[in-house]
Design brief:
Blueprint lengths: L13 H15 L5 E5 L9 E15 L2 E12 L2 E8 L17 H19 L5 E5 L5 H8 L9 E6 L7 E2 L1 H6 L5 H4 L14 E2 H8 L2 E4 L2 H9 L7 H6 L4 E3 L29 H11 L9 E7 L6 H13 L3 E7 L5 H12 L6 E5 L3 H10 L2 E4 L8 H8 L3 E5 L3 H5 L16 E3 L4 H17 L1 H13 L5 H16 L1
Parallel strand pairs: 1-4, 5-6, 6-9, 9-10, 11-12, 11-14, 12-13, 14-15, 15-16
Antiparallel strand pairs: 2-3, 3-4, 7-8
Helix pairs in contact: 2-3, 3-6, 9-12, 10-15, 15-16
Bound molecules: adenosine-5'-diphosphate and alpha-D-glucopyranose (GLC).
The site of alpha-D-glucopyranose (GLC) has 13 residues, from helix 1.
């Protein structure tokens, strides 16, 4: 795996969970998996065991010269990870966040080059390189254009978690990695961006040069090919449709499982759901909410336009107006519009005993929120997979979601789904507006207040939905086998 994140050491969202969970599943099935990551200063070092340098002088060709890196090895909850630490004046990964800098594209272009250089120099020859998102889009390009003679048998599977971020840049970044000849690489059949002519698109490079490309759910695979959710990539996906498909993510049920979770005060299962209420009490305590008879609705996720934050705002006030309580655990970019809006809201609602907004990234706290809430709301504008609702379901917390991407494949409306009743596990709405979110939240709160036994039944149905890594793990192994023998 070559990736920008691996949970829980380096995680800003679901990509980190996927890299960890999929690697673990592949290892359980007898494969050897190693993960190459940047060595960020801001990682959670307490989640990395036995960290030590393994390669002091990895010289990486860069801007016509060479940059020295140290490569470290360590175990992130059992996964063997290699961390690349460049010693360059720009201090690529010694920043106070993982992303959000003007030179992000250069940082990850360097990382991609360094990852391949490390394989070359260390003699590692994995059968498969599995790369993730725009950050590693240059890996298959560089492999094919520069490293083929040294690494002739390596095949690349490329997973796109988010089409909105594509790494669009000028040809200077390409030439820094040794990809000169802009007229060749900026051609529309290679890395040339289809919207901004003259620019290089790293995500597109990943699509063109990989042996197989996936996104993280079948429905999202359709949306990006035919549904207009492609952010300008539909043409490239059309050309390469024979090697493109959707594989639904799994959830790591060793990490996210109320039966064994040591980060929540009371453990419980579908057969023993009473004990979930101890977690509800603990959640209220933790967030200074009053104890009362009423549902808790939660939002856990990035404070990002993608997530339909205006609808989260509406859901919050709708819940409060209907006697419920609302908790939010979310992180955004400091100073941006959405983040500032929720900071204001937090101050405005500071004394409200039925509401708490926790702004920041807190992995441990997420466990308590999933375990303590009755409902989670996920009104995303687009959602390639959506691990938050899948995780919530494992904790018997009923999802109220917009029919987008992976949530179409995983959440089935209690009232309207054509699925058999025992497979229905939540509430779904379609319209991306206040009326839409109300239509579903109204039904969910109604069931909670007026048909508690039925609500409890829905909770156990969502707990019993199986979204483990077992099936997707096998799907990826099939893809690896296919591209190895093609
Ligand atoms: P995305 O990858 O688009 O952010 P997902 O729902 O697929 O969305 O994955 C988000 C992951 O990050 C989930 O595991 C969720 O629990 C976690 N998460 C998001 N925001 C926070 C936060 N502020 N604190 C703790 N965990 C968070
Ligand atoms: C992305 C998507 C999310 C998905 C996650 C993991 O960040 O926004 O829907 O679940 O990656 O694949």
């Amino acid at each position: 795996m070559i990736a920008p994140e691996c949970a829980p050491a380096a995680k800003t969202g679901g990509l980190g969970d996927v890299v960890f969970g999929l690697s673990r599943e592949l290892e359980i099935r007898g494969n050897t998996v190693e993960i190459i990551l940047p060595k960020y200063t801001t990682m959670r070092y307490d989640d990395i065991w036995g960290l030590e340098p393994v390669h002091h002088d990895l010289w990486v060709p860069w801007h016509g010269g060479a940059a020295r890196c140290t490569v470290w090895v360590g175990f992130v909850h059992g996964r063997k990870c290699f961390f690349i630490e460049p010693h360059v004046a720009d201090n690529f990964f010694g920043r106070d966040r993982l992303y959000g800098y003007a030179d992000d594209i250069e940082r990850f272009a360097f990382f991609s080059k360094a990852a391949l250089e490390y394989l070359l120099q260390s003699g590692k020859r994995p059968d498969i390189l599995h790369c993730h998102d725009w950050h590693t889009g240059l890996v298959p390009v560089l492999l094919c254009e520069q490293y083929r003679s040294a690494l002739p048998d390596q095949r690349v599977c490329y997973t796109i978690h988010n089409f909105r971020h594509q790494g669009v840049t000028c040809s200077k970044v390409l030439s820094a990695t040794g990809l000169g000849r802009p007229e060749h690489f900026l051609h529309a059949d290679r890395l040339g961006d289809d919207t901004y002519s003259g620019s290089a698109n790293l995500l597109k490079g990943g699509v063109v040069y990989s042996n197989f490309v996936t996104t993280v759910s079948p429905s999202h695979a359709s949306e990006v090919q035919w549904g207009g959710a492609d952010f300008g990539l539909a043409r490239a996906l059309g050309t390469h449709q024979g090697k493109f498909g959707g594989v639904l993510n799994g959830v790591d049920y060793d990490v996210w499982n109320p039966e064994v979770d040591r980060l929540i005060p009371a453990r419980y299962s579908a057969g023993d759901i009473e004990r979930k209420y101890e977690n509800k009490r603990a959640l209220r305590n933790r967030f200074w909410l009053q104890d009362k008879w009423g549902p808790i609705v939660a939002y856990v996720g990035r404070l990002d336009e993608q997530k339909g934050m205006h609808l989260v705002h509406h859901a919050l006030f709708y819940t409060l107006a209907h006697g419920g309580q609302f908790v939010l655990l979310g992180d955004g970019f400091h100073g941006d519009k959405i983040s500032s809006h929720f900071w204001h809201l937090k101050h405005y609602l500071n004394d409200n005993p039925d509401c708490h907004l926790e702004i920041g990234y807190q992995e441990e706290l997420a466990h308590l929120v999933y375990a303590g809430a009755d409902l989670v709301v996920v009104p995303s504008m687009f959602e390639p997979c959506g691990l938050a609702p899948l995780t919530a379901m494992r904790y018997g917390t009923v999802p109220v979601v917009r029919a987008a991407g992976g949530m179409i494949d995983t959440v089935f409306d209690r009232d309207y789904s054509p699925r058999p009743p025992w497979e229905r596990n939540g509430y779904v709405f379609h319209q991306a507006d206040n009326m839409g979110v109300e239509s579903a939240l109204h039904r969910a709160l109604g069931l909670w207040y007026h048909h508690p036994a039925e609500f409890r039944h829905l909770m156990t149905s969502s707990m019993r939905s199986d979204y483990s890594w077992a099936r997707p793990g096998q799907d990826y192994l099939n893809i690896y086998d296919y591209i190895r023998h093609k």
